[in-house]
Amino acid sequence: MSVTADLAAEQAREQANTGTKDVAESHRFDEAALDAWMKANVEGYQGPLTVRQFKGGQSNPTYQLTTPGQKYVMRRKPPGKLLPSAHAVDREFKVISALYPTGFPVARPFALCTDDGVIGTWFYIMEMVEGRILWDQSLPQYAPAERNAIFKAKIKTLADLHNTDYVKVGLEDYGKPGNYMARQVDRWTKQYKASETVHIPEVERLIEWLPKTVPPQERTSVVHGDYRLDNMIFHPTESRVTAVLDWELGTLGEPLADFTYILMNWVNGTISTIPDLKAHGLPTMDEAVEYYCGLTGRSGIADLNWFFAYNSFRLVGILQGILGRVRDGTANHPDAANMGPRVEALSKLSWSYAQKAGA
To answer: Is the pLDDT of residue 158 over 90?
Structure first.
């Protein structure tokens, strides 16, 4: 794909994911029942309530709830047939509830509902954080110094998450403490198989190779699972993160899974198309690694090619899950049906990094 095509795709993605829309027919619910529930369960809530649906989000439908005095966000499980362990809004609520009192940038959580009788599925309510969501990784609208500051804030916020004492904040039961990468390979293999629509030879090779070559896990931390620039809100004018969003894939695990996912921007993202990163204001991949390692007390990172193979494979599993929802009639995004070519391209990329890692 050319740089021009990349930019056009990025702009189209931003347009498709920015702002709100009327609630999709398949995601409507009893708004009066929600209003009554919020009166009983959300501190300070006062209607009347206006409901809009955010355009973004392939997985859990997300809504903007507006009252005369405050805006809220609701995340809910989608209706219909769901994959096992997916759409765990209760886990999202648990982690932001634990992190919010520490000062880590997440939205203030208000209440969780596990009664399907209210709107048809589980959901939770949190504060709506105003600010900037930055979709284009190249940050074309900013000067080089601010681009650098934004990327440093992104990496430092992740390091702060990984440095958080998960036992101290009450998240010791948020996930299993060891063997994370092997469990993740197994999870995404199962999701891929449950959602498989076509046979891809590279995926079959990866399914065989990845479990046999998992690097040893030296550290355990809270991991976000989908940490990227457009899953966070930046302050309206300052280069700092005010909220990290979309914790659906969060758990306890290998922090390098999160960080090497960021590094994919340098090998297969918009950043990889920038000819002179220094002039542009962005760190090189080596500089990003050095900065993160300095913040987390590491001397370096081995096995990068393995992690690049894994991260590409995980994206294959995620996108194949979206294709599975298209097949099952529960997809939540207008572009969902166009994921097929991306799945095949990522499968080939993943296998190429596996080969670099010795496959």
So the answer is: yes
